[in-house]
């Protein structure tokens, strides 16, 4: 019954912005770290960003280069990824994920095996 439902993907021109949302249901994830990964055609899934349970710590992949912001609203059980200055190379399926484990180790949780639940993926296409 646990579900992560992503929304906000779509087609945008280079330099534009999108905000991805991930609404969780079936259980509350306010105590857990959450993150975003992406997978481009022909490439492996890669880490994008993560956020600690209370939003106090955030981590980003190098390619983000200050363009993205991860945030969460625990009252709404929702995770967000604000993406600005999008580039064609950002084109990928973006996945929301939750680490349903405690305690927090202090790690950025850069690997897919650090997480337990995944969304269905949201397509982001950036045109040149």
The tally of beta strands, per DSSP, is 11
- In round numbers, the mean pLDDT is 95
CA radius of gyration is 14 Å
Structural class by SSE content: mainly beta
Distance between the termini: 39 Å
* Unreliably modeled segments: none
Shape: globular
Helix content: under 10%
Proportion of beta-strand residues: over 45%
Q: Which H/E pattern describes the elements?
A: EEEEEEEEEEE
Please describe the biggest sheet, giving its number of strands, its sense, and whether it closes into a barrel: 7 strands, mixed
The tally of helices reads 0
Task: Describe the overall structure.
The protein is mainly beta and 128 residues long. The protein contains no helices and 11 strands. It has strands spanning 3-7, 10-13, 18-25, 33-39, 46-51, 58-60, 68-73, 78-83, 92-99, 117-118, 122-127. Strands 2, 4, 5, 6, 9, 10 and 11 form a 7-stranded mixed β-sheet that branches.
Gist of the model:
The protein is mainly beta and 128 residues long. It has strands at 3-7, 10-13, 18-25, 33-39, 46-51, 58-60, 68-73, 78-83, 92-99, 117-118, 122-127. It is globular, with a radius of gyration of 14 Å.
Element layout with pairings:
Layout: E1 3-7, E2 10-13, E3 18-25, E4 33-39, E5 46-51, E6 58-60, E7 68-73, E8 78-83, E9 92-99, E10 117-118, E11 122-127
Parallel strand pairs: 2-11
Antiparallel strand pairs: 1-3, 3-8, 4-5, 4-9, 5-6, 7-8, 9-10, 9-11
């Amino acid at each position: 019954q646990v579900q992560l439902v992503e929304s906000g993907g779509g087609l945008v021109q280079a330099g534009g912005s999108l905000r991805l949302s991930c609404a969780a249901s079936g259980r509350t994830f306010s105590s857990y770290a959450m993150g975003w990964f992406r997978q481009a055609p022909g490439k492996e899934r890669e880490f994008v960003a993560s956020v600690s349970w209370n939003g106090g710590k955030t981590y980003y992949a190098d390619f983000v280069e200050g363009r993205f912001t991860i945030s969460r609203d625990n009252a709404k059980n929702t995770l967000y990824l604000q993406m600005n200055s999008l580039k064609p190379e950002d084109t990928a399926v973006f996945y929301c994920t939750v680490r349903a484990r405690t305690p927090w180790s202090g790690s950025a949780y850069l690997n897919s095996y650090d997480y337990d639940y995944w969304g269905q993926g949201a397509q982001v296409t950036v045109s040149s």
